[in-house]
Amino acid sequence: MSRIPPVAPSDAGILVRLAYRAAAKMVGEVPEPFAVFAHHPKLFFTSLTQEFAADKASTTLPPSVRELAVYRVAWTLGCSWCVDFGTMIQRLDGLDVDRLKEIGDYETSPKYTDDERAAIAYADAMTATPDSVSDAQVADLEQRFGRAGVVELTFQIGLENMRARINSSLGITEQGFSSGDACRVPWESADARLTPQAEHPAQR
After folding, report:
1. Cis geometry, peptide bond prior to residue 41 (ω within 30 degrees of 0)
2. Which residues form the Carboxymuconolactone decarboxylase-like domain (predicted)?
3. Quick one: 77 exposed, middle or buried, by C-beta within 10 A (0-12, 13-18, 19+)?
4. Which of 84, 143, 161, 176 has an alpha carbon 20 to 30 Å from 71's alpha carbon atom?
5. pLDDT tens per residue across span 14-39
């Protein structure tokens, strides 16, 4: 259970309930971070808009590069919800999720390309406190992905740092998205569940 309980549909406003239903149709269940953020509707919709816009705008990098960098941040910071959800995203994108077991050995694992290793190393450098990004590292990334690619990678890594730290601080943990059998948010009242239940996770 998260440190702040999620807002049950019966206690939410109409717009939040509609957002819950849309999210459940897309990924199989209401993501618990959404339900916790619903205590602050203005930030709820700010976060929702940012996530949707960032996803639609991030088309410069190969999905494997972008998603591995984001996953590495979640793994590094110990956000089990982000690791769980990120695994599902990679599976839906048709990526090899089995290799995520070797993310700790990405520098030597043959399952990662040089471009992917460079992106993961950048995620590590950005996530360190203080960050350890170097001029040479950014120049190398620019050669690989172009300037727009570097900006996209930087934005996505920064966004995941924010997500992971928020979720971990609020005690939001994995929901079972990676297994394809996502668990319902543990609403405080038993009669607050969404109906009807989403039948299956949708493709992105």
Report:
1. no
2. 53-124
3. middle
4. 143
5. 999 999 999 999 999 999 999 999 99
